[in-house]
Structures are given as C-alpha cells and as structure tokens.
C-alpha cells in the first residue's frame, strides 16, 4: 500500500513541476528547491516535456 501512495505522490509532484515549467516564471534551480526534486530530475522532466 505504501508503494501506491508513493507513486501517487510522485505523479502529483511531476504534474506540479510540469506546470511550473510551462509557466516559464521559475528558474530550474527554483523549481528543484520548491519541489524537493534534484536539479537533474527537473532537467529531465523539462527535456521530456519538450520532446
């Protein structure tokens, strides 16, 4: 059951990060800081979004 909750949390967090990227108002470092994701993870999400 914990894995399901973790998966839901990660999906929600990814959606928030993608919205922040779309807004274009935040530096990648700010998004990483706010979301708790690493800078590399944020860069990866940005790259996936632009593909």
Report what the structure shows:
The protein has 51 residues and is mostly helical. The chain has a domain at 17-51. The protein is 80% helix and 0% strand. The protein has three helices and no strands. It has helices at 2-23, 28-35, 39-49. Helix 1 packs across helix 3 (39-49). The termini are far apart.
Summary tags:
single chain, 51 residues
Blueprint of the fold:
Elements: H1 2-23, H2 28-35, H3 39-49
Tell me the radius of gyration.
Answer: 11 Å
Residue share in β-strands: under 5%
Query: How many DSSP E strands?
Result: 0
Mean pLDDT: 92
| Biggest sheet layout | none
- Along the chain, the helix and strand elements come as HHH
Helix content: over 70%
Please mark out the parts with pLDDT under 50 across 5 or more consecutive residues, or reply none: none
The backbone outline, from C-alpha atoms, is globular
How widely separated are the two ends? 33 Å
Brief overview:
With 51 residues, the protein is mainly alpha-helical.
